[in-house]
Design brief:
five-stranded antiparallel beta sheet; TIM Barrel; alpha/beta; binds zinc ion; Immunoglobulin-like; 2 domains; six-stranded parallel beta sheet; about 375 residues
Length: about 375
């Protein structure tokens, strides 16, 4: 099997159309014309933040217009999607139509209206609030305690988004608050205190995922991709107002044919200049990085070719992330949330799960300033 797999990898990387005439590994025995296995499937997960009638540049690209939000909900309803919570996920083959998980971050006040619009379609969402900011006398731009209780009563899920909304890998205080204070605060508001958690900024390390995963069942990231229904880490597609809705529609409809052929060996969330994967089936020849992390021109959800930054040795696939980031994302970028994809057969095919890697240690300052040391300032050791 391994020999066949190696041959296939070598073959398909060199000549992408040669796979169909060969014997595929059993796991991918059902394959479409593009060599993509079918039948595994994944659940799409969407994540919204703020809303406004006419978002402008001052609102940032995480503020969606109400019109586009309404259009997306209508699309979901028209396409037969049913909103679920993670523990309800089933394989697509089990029947019951299409599933989607709908999430909302930061506990912004206007999400009450977003919830009402969900309810008109029979949808329910997970609202990730910032416990420290949700009080009876909350700042007017955030949901207060009454608002949160109203969401819970209507059948939505209220869950924690950190404690104060700080990047967990950079502060132990935020980790402690998320583990100790947030569950109590969520339970006080009638929320589900131990089920779901969303990392502020989508930031985590393997150690933080382990620690937070000991207190919460489902950990929500901002890595682009589908959820396999089993992993504790859930990818989510951030809805951005400067990204065409067709990207998200294609993503929503593609869940049934999701079948990643790259299994990550480098831990999700690790500091990694290079990331390695096991290739489990033929790779198309046009592997690209699809990143939510903005590139050097500030654009998200673009694909950039891997080219010589992807190497194959036997069934091990190595991606030189540092070189890729240096080329397309510019200096100073230290983290990337991405999936490896192909567009060879039209549309987007996800070759890997959604994953996040740091190019340098997140606990270090983002731009360390070198301090010159002059010999005449040194104090001799006593
Ligand atoms: Zn947030």
């Amino acid at each position: 099997m391994i020999v066949i797999r190696n041959l296939l990898l070598a073959c398909t990387l060199a000549l992408s159309a040669c796979a169909p005439s060969m014997t595929l590994p059993a796991r991918t025995a059902r394959a479409d014309a593009c060599g993509a296995a079918v039948g595994q499937g994944g659940v799409p997960v969407l994540a919204w933040h703020g809303f406004a009638e006419h978002p402008g540049p001052q609102d940032g690209n995480l503020t969606e217009s109400w019109a586009r939000y309404d259009e997306t909900l209508r699309f979901l309803a028209d396409q037969g999607f049913r909103s679920i919570f993670p523990e309800d996920a089933r394989s697509p083959g089990a029947g019951g139509g299409r599933q989607v998980i709908l999430t909302f971050d930061d506990g912004r006040k206007e999400q009450l209206r977003a919830a009402e619009m969900l309810e008109r379609h029979g949808f329910r969402g997970i609202f990730f609030i910032i416990p420290r900011r949700t009080r009876p006398d909350a700042d007017a731009q955030f949901l207060n305690s009454d608002d949160v209780e109203r969401l819970a009563r209507a059948g939505h899920r209220v869950s924690a988004h950190g404690y104060e909304h700080r990047s967990l890998p950079t502060t132990g205080t935020e980790v402690a608050g998320s583990l100790v204070r947030s569950p109590d605060a969520i339970a006080r508001h009638g929320g589900d205190d131990r089920l779901d958690f969303a990392f502020p900024f989508g930031h985590y390390t393997p150690e933080i995922a382990d620690a937070i995963g000991g207190a919460y069942r489902h950990l929500h990231t901002v890595n682009p991709g589908y959820w396999d229904g089993r992993s504790p880490l859930l990818p989510r597609m951030l809805i951005m107002s400067d990204v065409d809705l067709s990207i998200f529609r294609e993503y929503l409809l593609g869940g049934a044919s999701y079948a990643p052929v790259l299994r990550p060996l480098t831990a999700d969330g690790a500091v990694a200049g290079t990331a390695t994967f096991v290739g489990q089936a033929p790779l198309p020849g046009d592997a690209q990085v699809f990143a939510v992390s903005a590139d050097a021109e500030g654009r998200s959800y673009l694909t950039h070719p891997l080219g010589e930054n992807l190497r194959v040795s036997g069934d091990t696939v190595t991606v030189d992330l540092a070189a890729h980031m240096g080329r397309y994302h510019g200096p100073g970028r230290g983290v990337i949330s991405y999936a490896i994809v192909s567009r060879q057969c039209g549309g987007m095919r996800y070759l890997s799960p959604g994953i996040m890697h740091w190019i340098r240690d997140p606990a270090l300052p983002l731009r360390p300033v070198p301090t010159p040391v002059r010999p005449d300032t040194l104090v001799p050791a006593s």
